[in-house]
Structures are given as C-alpha cells and as structure tokens.
Amino acid sequence: MDTGLNRENILIEALPYIKRFHGSTIVIKFGGHIVIDEESIKNIIKDIILLKYVGMKPVIVHGGGPEITRVMNEMGIKPKSVDGLRITDEKTIEIARMVLIGNINTKIVSKIEKEGVKSIGLSGKDGKLFTARKKGKKKVEIEGEEKKIDLGYVGEIENVDPELIEIMTERSYIPVISPIAIGQTGISLNVNADSVAGRLAHELNARKLIMATNVDGVLKDPSDKSTLISELSIKESKSIIRDGTVEGGMIPKVKACINAVNKGVKKAHIINGEKNHSILLEIFTDEGIGTMIKKN
Ligand SMILES: Nc1ncnc2c1ncn2[C@@H]1O[C@H](COP(=O)(O)OP(=O)(O)O)[C@@H](O)[C@H]1O
Ligand SMILES: CC(=O)N[C@@H](CCC(=O)OP(=O)(O)O)C(=O)O
Questions:
Q1: Does the ipTM surpass 0.95?
Q2: Tens of pLDDT along 65-86?
Q3: Fewest beta carbons less than 10 Å away: which of 4, 81, 172, 273?
Q4: Rounded distance, CA 218 to CA 98, Å?
Q5: What is the pTM (predicted TM-score) of this model?
Q6: Which architecture does CATH list for 24-228+238-248+274-294?
C-alpha cells in the first residue's frame, strides 16, 4: 500500500508533466478490444477526464474492428482483411457505419457526459472533417503467387479540416471521432482507426499520440509478453514492419505512429488500455509504459 509519502512523491513527479502538457492537444486512440470491454472503457475515460481537468485537450479516435467482425459473422458474412485492413463490400460498409457511428461512438460520448464533461461525436462526414479516396488494390501473395486484391470501400485519408475539432476543444468538449470518411461522390469509406488517429494528431499539432490497445506495446515475439520493446526510432519501426516482427492490426498502428512522428508529433505511444490507469502512468510518470516511438 502507498504511504502518505509515496502519494506525495507521485503528485510531485506528475507536476512537471502537468506544466509541460497544459494546453496541449493529446490524441488518444481506443482500440476495438478496449471499446467493448466495460471495465477498460470506464477506467480509460476517467483518465481522460483527469487530463481535461489539468488543462490538456484530449481528442479521442475509436476503433471497433472486433465488433464489426462479430456483427458480420452474425449476418453470415465472412470477414477478410489484408495487412490489418478489412475488405469492405457494400454490406460491410453499412455494418461498419452502424457499429462505429451508431453504436460505439454514441456509447463513448454518453459515458463521458455521465462524468459531467461535455463531449461530441463526429465522423469524417461531419463538416468534411476528413475526406478520403478509395485505396488502390493491395498486392498479396497467395500460395506463392502474387495477386492484386480490391479492398472495396476502404479509404485513405486525403484531406483533413481540423477546425471543427479545434472549436470543440476550445469550448471544453471532448471530441470522439469515428473512422468513417467521406469519399469524392459523398460515399462512406471505411478507414483504419489507427491511420485516422495518426493523421489527426499531425493536423491538430498534437503533443502526443497514444494508441490504447490490448497488448503491452510492440513485442519482439508477439507470443511472449516479456519481450516488450520500450523505445523505437522511426528507422527501427520501419524495419520491424519489413522483417515481419509486427503483423495484422499492429501494422497500421506502427505505420500511423511513424507518420505522426515524421510530421512533427513529438512522441507516439502504444500502450495497454486494459491495464488500470495506463494513460495516467504514461503521461505523468518518469518511466512511462508501453512502446514509445520517436524520431531518432
Ligand atoms: N509484434 C507485435 N507485438 C504486439 N502485438 C502484435 C504484434 N504483431 C501483431 N500483433 C497483434 O496486434 C494486435 C493489436 O492490433 P489490433 O487487434 O488491431 O488492436 P486494436 O483493436 O487495439 O487496434 C495484438 O493484439 C496482437 O495480436
Ligand atoms: C479499413 C479498416 O480496416 N477499418 C477498420 C475500422 C475500425 C478499426 O480500425 O478498428 P480497430 O481499432 O479495432 O482496428 C475495420 O473495419 O475494422
């Protein structure tokens, strides 16, 4: 148990970070496993509200991959993905919209509001927050043969207009953003939530990007928890994608961190959002947790 002195030390250790980050925008991405776990989401929202009260401007981007997959299975549609990106046909984009905007987003917003803080739910389609173009075909190797696969209604962010978010954070709202973008003809496009978080962090000149997921960070060996890599440069991050150390959903996450840091976000972190108060530990303690990605 903490003695009184330990508690004092914790507060004193937090002070320089509170000063440093006062007024800063912090983009936090909730992974799809976190958003369906009541306990994790409750804890993480408490942390974010504390950030707000000490003067930071948190912006939330959420995923929802596992829930989209569950609904697809229920409807008899076989989920498929390439390098962490879901192949999205006409029915799937409807499911993605329903799950992400209709369900997950509204739930997060109402949980924040319940804590007495103003929040607003947005997607790329609101105020043209972010537009996207259809992603080109992806090269994949199937049984030794290279094939090109059309991902369907999957978008790649083209343009971001951060004004709406800036107005909202100035007025003390916590914006909660779904990764559905608007395409050229007004169609909806499914964008990976990590890419949305990375791009918004850059466009909002965020001080930090935090990816809250269901593992402790990037692992050298994904089956062994003790192999956490606590720090990565951009060069090292690129090399662990190339050599296959990271797979599946971790690929867009590391890529989004690389892009954000390349564009001026000082630090990006991949942390375990299932652990109690992981965001506070990351921001307010000297050691931090998870994997930190920075320029050099
Ligand atoms: N090297 C790695 N280190 C950690 N996790 C990895 C690695 N390679 C692949 N993964 C997988 O990536 C997953 C996280 O991505 P994803 O499931 O998309 O999370 P989220 O829903 O939070 O975005 C982990 O649960 C793990 O299975
Ligand atoms: C194109 C694409 O893959 N879109 C994602 C959007 C949700 C997401 O990114 O959720 P996670 O954070 O749980 O991964 C999907 O359909 O699953």
A1: yes
A2: 999 999 999 999 999 998 889 9
A3: 4
A4: 31
A5: 0.95
A6: 3-Layer(aba) Sandwich (3.40)
